[in-house]
Write a structure and sequence with these properties.
This protein has about 160 residues and is α/β, with parallel strands linked by helices. It has seven helices and six strands, in the order βαβαβααβαβαβα.
Length: about 160
């Protein structure tokens, strides 16, 4: 269920939190997730739909360009951080999207204090985010994974044509 479709993309976690905090005080459950989201594909859609089903508000952290490059290589990302956050923020199941600049999401999780933090089925519950989420009373949920779908695979397929 989308809470806010007008102002829902941010480049600053503190500005996002100003919109999110009153909703949390109303008792809305907050779900967070994060990723590069370089080229949107069916695996991303399935993942985000499942994530959204675990609470009232879905907040998605989008890795900044520098972090994506460190994770994926010098030719990545294909799309810049502003475009990627705009695309993710435009999705019906996403209530808020923001760019984060750290190597991992622990910093923003300490600010948002989600009820649930979602990771894809390619992860186990033994992730660095778990202690931060649980310290604030939340828990980690692992959702399914759509095999064969990745931005990297799409890029390789395009390059081979």
């Amino acid at each position: 269920m989308s809470v806010n479709n007008t102002i829902n993309t941010f480049t600053n976690i503190n500005k996002l939190y100003k919109y999110l905090a009153p909703l949390q005080k109303e008792g809305k459950s907050v779900v967070t997730t994060n990723g590069c989201f370089d080229i949107l594909h069916a695996g991303h859609i399935q993942y985000l739909k499942e994530a959204a089903s675990h609470g009232d508000i879905l907040v998605v952290g989008v890795n900044c360009d520098k972090v994506v490059q460190n994770l994926k290589g010098k030719n990545r990302p294909v799309q810049n951080e502003n475009d990627r956050v705009s695309i993710i923020g435009a999705l019906k199941m996403v209530d808020f999207a923001f760019i984060f600049y750290e190597d991992n999401p622990c910093s923003f999780l300490n600010i948002i204090k989600p009820d649930i933090h979602v990771k894809g089925g390619d992860y186990s519950e033994n992730i660095i985010e778990k202690p931060v989420v649980e310290a604030h009373g939340g828990h980690v949920v692992i959702v399914s994974f759509k095999n064969g779908y990745s931005s990297s695979n799409i890029i390789r397929k395009i390059a081979s044509k």
